[in-house]
């Protein structure tokens, strides 16, 4: 499903690459984690996987399509939850109406179930931008899960959540 072949990436103002000649193959149906110290390149790798950064060399393919090409059939089957996120000043209903059509396997039932699991209540009347960091993260993760993409990337998904969350 996901193939990373000889990937190298360097930020413009850095001498050394953050990722150098990295290869990996990931099959369907697994849950994987990235472990490493701060600055090791974990977030960079996630952004390279979903095509938001361009490697200096090598490539990332998802279902045999180079993710850097940003083709609709790839974009609608990958979702990334960034470590830090900014949500627009709209209600959750508006956000879902605007974004769910981009994901063909989006499920409104799953969204409601995930919101209940995360115990997100009474936010319908609030603008998403006014929620606390933890509430934003929960709502965005619920949306991400409801998209039912084949590849879900989460960068530090528990940052901002309290212990019960």
Protein described:
It is built from 5 helices and 6 strands. Strand 3 (57-62) and strand 4 form a beta hairpin. The strands form 2 sheets. Strands 2-1-3-4 form a 4-stranded antiparallel sheet, with helices on one face. The protein has helices at 42-49, 72-75, 92-99, 108-117, 133-146, and strands at residues 2-9, 19-26, 57-62, 65-66, 78-81, 151-154.
Summarize, please.
This protein is of the alpha+beta class and 165 residues long. It has helices spanning 42-49, 72-75, 92-99, 108-117, 133-146, and strands at residues 2-9, 19-26, 57-62, 65-66, 78-81, 151-154.
Write the layout of secondary structure elements.
Layout: E1 2-9, E2 19-26, H1 42-49, E3 57-62, E4 65-66, H2 72-75, E5 78-81, H3 92-99, H4 108-117, H5 133-146, E6 151-154
Parallel strand pairs: 5-6
Antiparallel strand pairs: 1-2, 1-3, 3-4
Rounded mean pLDDT score: 92
Shape: globular
Distance between the termini: 30 Å
Number of helices: 5
Rounded to an integer in angstroms, the radius of gyration calculated over CA atoms is 17 Å
The beta-strand count equals 6
Main sheet properties: 4 strands, antiparallel
**What share of the residues lie within helices?**
25-40%
Strand content: 15-25%
Low-pLDDT residue spans: none
> Which secondary-structure class do the elements indicate?
alpha+beta
SSE pattern, N- to C-terminal: EEHEEHEHHHE
Please state how the strands of the largest beta sheet are arranged side by side.
2-1-3-4
């Amino acid at each position: 499903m996901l193939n990373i072949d000889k990937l190298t990436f360097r930020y413009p103002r850095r001498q050394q690459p953050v990722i150098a000649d990295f290869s990996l193959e990931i099959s369907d149906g697994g849950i994987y984690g990235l472990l490493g110290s701060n600055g090791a390149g974990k977030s960079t790798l996630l952004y390279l996987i979903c095509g938001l950064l361009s490697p200096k060399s090598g490539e990332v393919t998802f279902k045999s399509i180079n993710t850097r090409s940003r083709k609709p059939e790839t974009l609608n089957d990958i979702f990334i939850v960034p470590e830090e996120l900014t949500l627009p000043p709209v209600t959750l209903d508006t956000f879902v109406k605007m974004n769910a059509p981009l994901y063909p396997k989006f499920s409104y039932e799953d969204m409601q179930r995930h919101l209940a699991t995360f115990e997100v209540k009474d936010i319908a009347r609030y603008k998403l931008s006014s929620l606390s960091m933890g509430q934003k993260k929960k709502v965005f993760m619920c949306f991400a899960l409801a998209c039912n993409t084949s590849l879900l990337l989460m960068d530090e998904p528990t940052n901002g959540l309290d212990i019960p969350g």
